[in-house]
Amino acid sequence: MKNNLPIWLEDYFDQIGRGLSHHAFLILGKKGLGKSLFAEYLAEKLLCQNAETNDCSSCFACNLESIDDHPDYHTLNVLDGKKLISIEQFPELVLKLFETPFLQKNKVAVLNLDSCNHHGFNSLLKILEEPPKNTFFIFTSSFRHLIPETILSRCLNIYIKTPSTKDALSWLSEFTEEEAKMSLTLTDNCPILAKEYLKTNTMQIREEFINDISGIIKSGKDIVTISKKWIEELDTLPMKVEWMVKILYDTIKFHADDSLQKLTEDTDNISRYLSQNTHIEKVHNLLTQTNAIWSQFSSDSNLNKEYQLNSLFIDWEKLLSISKKV
Ligand SMILES: [Zn+2]
Predict the structure, then answer these.
(1) Which of 87, 99, 316, 322 is the most exposed place for a label (fewest CB within 10 A)?
(2) Is the pLDDT of residue 210 over 70?
(3) Residue 188, burial from CB neighbour count under 10 angstroms (0-12, 13-18, 19+)
(4) CATH of domain 201-320
(5) How far apart are the CA of 36 and the centre of ligand 1, in A?
(6) Domain ranges of the chain
(7) From the CA of 56, how far away is ligand 1's center (Å)?
(8) In angstroms, rounded to a whole number, what is the distance separating the alpha carbons of residues 122 and 112?
(9) From ligand 1's centre to the CA of 43, what distance in Å?
């Protein structure tokens, strides 16, 4: 076996059991909990030629550099320039799955359902209704509500939950505890995403974000500059707007219960201040608005992002501004 399962995923594998009597698995859960890792691990187990052995490392399947080099491992990726898997890609997969396996064992198809549209779901449904022999399907998704009931009911649904802080921290032990804790807070305790944050410059982006937001609330004078800068860093834009949403959520929580100690360590002072000094109805309105902008930015629509962001900043400044109250 090439992959080791992170500790919080081990139980899920035990739940499925060694029998692996289902032919379709759907692994569900938030982004950053390790769904793909789990899918790959399951695929390795299904393709291993010494399945009876607990820790096989000698068979052909287990000796491949990566599981997707295995001739009986199949997947579909989103093609360059596309947002979803194209309808033309499915017949190719179906054809391969009806062939005899190269290694006279199982065939495995691994697929992220979040990249499928309704054509894709229809193709999958057909093959799930009459699956080829010795073929296993392993699906992953962060958006269960977008999957048709007909697909859900044909799969063994496995829900990956957020791990305990202890397990998450021990998995992130290569970083300092302070860093690890901070990135877990920012990612709602999703360790894989937290690690991604720590390995890239996300924590630095976060620091700049807090400066920018404080600037908007304190004075409002930098709105145009900040907006220009955020638009230039388009990749991180949805994440920043999501962080804005989080500040407002925390504000509402602090307002409802002022005995709360901590919510999001590095922005708590902003949220707490707003909860004490702003009309909570305004915060609610702003939350609706910010949330709407976030989903537009995340869905990558063609709207004028700079204009939208500018007006959002103006509303934040207008409704939350400290300077105008003094
Ligand atoms: Zn093996």
Answers:
(1) 99
(2) yes
(3) middle
(4) 1.20.272.10
(5) 20
(6) 7-161, 201-320
(7) 4
(8) 15
(9) 11
